Amino acid sequence: MPRPAAAAEPAFVSEQVFTVAYGKIAEVYLQQVDFGRLGLDGLKGLATIDPTARAERQGSTVRLYVSGSLIGEYAAPSLSDSAGWAALTTKAVERARLYSPILYQAAPERVYQVVLDSVMTDLDGYSRYTGTQRATSERAQREGYGGIGLSLETANGRTLVRDVLPRSPADRAGIRSGDQLLAIDGDLTARLNEADMRDRLRGPTGTMVLLTVARDSNPPRRAPVRRERVVPNTVNASVSEQVGVLKVDRFNAATASNLRDAVLSTRQSVGKGLRGFVLDLRGNPGGLLDQAVAVADLFIAQGKIITTEGRHPDSRQRFEAGPDDIADGLPLVVLVDGRSASSAEVVAAALQDSGRAVVVGASSYGKGSVQTVTRLPNDGELFLTWSRIYTPAGYTLHRQGVQPTVCTSRTGQDDPAALLSDLREGRARPMTQFAGWRARAADDEDALARLREACPWKEHEPELDVKVALRLLAEPALYQRAVALSSTNTVAER
């Protein structure tokens, strides 16, 4: 029986969310989709909330059941009618909520999540729906947010400034790491949790926030700070043995700019004794593709960076390097591992194929696709795969990833000198030997297995990769030999 009319109305489920989501799938997804399957599977997702909810299709009719009873019948739209399936989904959800107390009480966001999660499982492993709360956080990391550029930590009942972003509003206001934050806009931090403090520090750009801070035994002071767009810094630079070590955690809207600054700062601080750079992309899950292209372009003076191919005309792109090299040709080693994915793989492959760098480590993850991000009317986000990535040598990163020129992950090999002995004595396998496997790996499981086994990823001492890189950079002739092996990896021109 339906719920009595006197009961409180449930929160509104918007048809627009499904209309925009389904329309975008139809427009940009890598392959054409069957909404007869996707739409029905979306409705089946309601069982995640109420296991008695069931949807099935018989001929041209979609039937909806709750607790074993038929509660609705709908004419199935055509297989390509995304708007029709969005409308059907909304009607069916509203109907099911009248007959299911569990669905009736579910928040709209929960309904969007289960329906769109079920739709996404019919696509590929990288297409996904992200709910409002998580999407807001991810957007802030990716694109920036209105804030003042500091992070906090709580220790022994005190709230301390952990890091201050250089040149941020907090930095210009004289706030430093280790300062104690006593109050935000007059409210004591002792009475606020971490989420409250974060929300109070963030806000529209141009607005003010008043901080009360104390340093050492000095009296507290008030610091008015104006919020600006803040993009987290994903680059960390250090120097080891006259080599600049550049660690990039992920690719957001400021990565290329921050990396450029780090390279220039390192060159200035070390001077003419600088022997080269290590670009550490281990554990980097990727991020914005345009930033990956920009990072590769920092070091490559000419030639192709990547190409992308998909169903939508705008997904077919070719990226070329501009005529400059921020490192002025200094030797470059790139570190990757099994967690290096997506944009990190784009950078590693472009630098390797162009002969600009030597890749050291283990085979990367193998995420060779590009996702387009759509912000939905509920502020959630839809990530849809719309193109495949091809390296300058012509192979796809999909499934196979990047093969290091110097592999550090084989069992029993943990001595830097021994790892470079094959290269030193002319026994190292040139990248051209991988070309046949790479050409077939996208569709041939045997070729893929051989390729992945050539340098399998496994946990090993992280410092081993760095030691190999530093040793390689200490011997210019050995480095040049590795570069020569790296840059002859053409599969097919694209």
From TrEMBL:
UniProt keyword annotation of Protease present: yes
Domain annotation PDZ: ranges: 137-216
| Keyword terms, alphabetized | Hydrolase, Protease, Serine protease
Q: Does the keyword Hydrolase apply?
A: yes
Q: Which SUPFAM superfamilies match?
A: ClpP/crotonase, PDZ domain-like
Q: Which family, according to the similarity comment?
A: Belongs to the peptidase S41A family.
Q: Which NCBIfam families match?
A: prc (TIGR00225)
Name of this chain's protein:
S41 family peptidase
Species name: Azospirillum isscasi
